[in-house]
Amino acid sequence: MTRAAGNEKIVDHVEVFAEESQAESDRRRSAEVSQIPLATPRVYVSRAEHVFPTLTPAQMARIAAHGHVRKVTAGELLFDVGMPNDRFFVITEGAINVSMTVDGLEDVLVTHHAGGFTGEAGMLSARPTIVRCRAVESGEVIEVDRERLLGIVQTDAELSEIILRAFILRRVELIAHGHGDAVLVGSNHSSGTHRIKEFLTRNGHPYAYLDLDRDPDVQELLDRFHVRVEDIPVVICRGVTVLRNPTNREIAECLGFNEVLDPTHVRDVIIIGAGPAGLAAAVYGASEGLDVLVLESSAPGGQAGASSRIENYLGFPTGISGQDLAGRAYIQAQKFGAQMIIAQDAMRLACVRKPFAIEVEGGPRVPARAVIIATGAQYRRLALDNLADYEGVGVYYGATHLEAQFCVGEEVIIVGGGNSAGQAAVFLAETARSVQVCVRAGSLADSMSRYLIRRIEQNPAIVVRTHTEITALQGEPNLERVLLRGPDGTETRNVRHLFVMTGAVPGTQWLEECVALDEKGFIKTGPDLTRADLTAARWPLARAPHLLETSLPGVFAVGDVRSGSIKRVASAVGEGSIAVSFVHRVLQE
């Protein structure tokens, strides 16, 4: 099938599915979407032994103690796409194929023999499986359920390293080759397409992408089947469900990102936000035996997750991308049993009485004995009337490989003088023709780490423009020109890509009057709470608030959302871990 033909079928289905019965629609979707070609994955030889390791008899014996041994027959289906990802198999005899379905046939990704095992990172989060597993030879396997597998990785250091490393690398291979249960059909000139790409990528979910802009007959196809501009992008989930311009929450529900929340289950602690601070709190809380629930409105990592490379974080001398750091922490928290809910906002904190309750978007009120607020802060939007017209199609708030691919050989502008802006400038300068860094201040010295300033000064592709601000954006339909006002007057630059990384707006709107805030809306904690703050909040205890505790006993704030916080990843991680120690004290009161 050619790419054009593949796109025609998908656009065809966008229109036709609505006219069919549910059963007919399901059959058509499954049959047609399966025709999308998938490449055979290439596992790098240098790490093949880590992606598909062979367990020793002693290691298999330790796993067998947590599960049960059973026979399998040739042709037996052990699990299929969309089924619960709750069973882990170790092959002791025979062979098992792991495959994707292509044109009704099984495209084998790997064949596991004795000592091999099934599974990848999605199993830790209990998301539905995205592959098929079938016995191709009669034999024997050790079957372990998900909960017992988590017990193994928590208690057996050797097996934990082998299994988790394999799970992570297998997910990396699936992502690299677009082998997943989602197909995104869209345009690189669509802000919705960029949003969905970012959502799936930052959540580590593999997907295939079909770009309508590369096909000469795309407009004819859109007109023929009455697909409106606002219907693009289209997401097809597991070959069954078609979503037109879906929200992130709709995608998460369709792909089974989240387990069902039990409104009667009182958690030890609910963590709002999965940036570095929230993830650290989840790791330390769950590893210390607390019942932890994490609510994240978009994707793990927060602002740090959009950093191309963090080089001043302890333990990573060559640097690490924000997404890699967040992905590792996300898996680490799940390893210890923390439950993660993605793309569901905390809408309100019910704070009148204990246990507290979090009202979840589209879900129930979830009770908790303690709460850690780690909702972070968002970059301040430029005060330009037409800014929203260009967000995602010329104006971006993060500089990852996803955005960098649009900037090859072009001039880009970065607004901001903090470390995030410096990291973005150095990263984008690797492929962009030139990078203009615009700051209102007279220098970068007060807001950026010295190592980044030196790199910027030594890179001829980067120009720092001080006392400069953006006054207008122009272009139709995407960004084409940027107007700058600097010391020498107003200047127009033919720039199609603008990165905004300046200021911060705290994520505290949902808290209403539950906790004391400073004049900028950040949460006041510990010694920053004045006597007047505590009197207004009717502080009920004889003790003073703990460090990082808000004006509401048992509710803590960590990371960028906290008033006076230091805007560094290491500081956020430290605060997240420290807050857990005080949660233990509160739970004992």
Give your account of this protein's structure.
The chain is α/β, with parallel strands linked by helices and 589 residues long. It has 4 domains: 113 residues, Glutaredoxin (3-Layer(aba) Sandwich); 132 residues, Jelly Rolls; 194 residues, FAD/NAD(P)-binding domain; 114 residues, FAD/NAD(P)-binding domain (3-Layer(bba) Sandwich), CATH 3.50.50. The protein has 17 helices and 26 strands. The strands form 6 sheets. Strands 10, 11, 12, 13, 14, 15 and 26 form a 7-stranded mixed sheet that branches. The protein is globular, with a radius of gyration of 25 Å.
Write a concise keyword list for the protein shown above.
7-stranded mixed beta sheet, 589 residues, disordered N terminus, globular, Jelly Rolls, alpha/beta, Glutaredoxin, 5-stranded antiparallel beta sheet, 30% helix
Q: Write out the CATH superfamily name of the largest domain.
A: FAD/NAD(P)-binding domain
Total count of strands: 26
Q: Identify the overall geometry.
A: globular
Q: What portion of the residues fall into strands of 2 or more residues? A: 15-25%
Low-confidence parts lasting 5 or more residues at pLDDT below 50?
Answer: 1-45
How many angstroms does the end-to-end distance come to?
66 Å
CATH level-3 fold name of the largest domain: FAD/NAD(P)-binding domain
CATH architecture of the largest domain: 3-Layer(bba) Sandwich
Largest sheet: 7 strands, mixed
Number of contiguous helices: 17
Helix content bin: 25-40%
Q: How confident is the prediction overall: mean pLDDT?
A: 89
Number of domains: 4
Which structural class do you get from the secondary structure elements? alpha/beta
Look at the structure and give the CATH class of the largest domain: Alpha Beta
Quaternary form = single chain
Using only C-alpha atoms, the radius of gyration works out to 25 Å
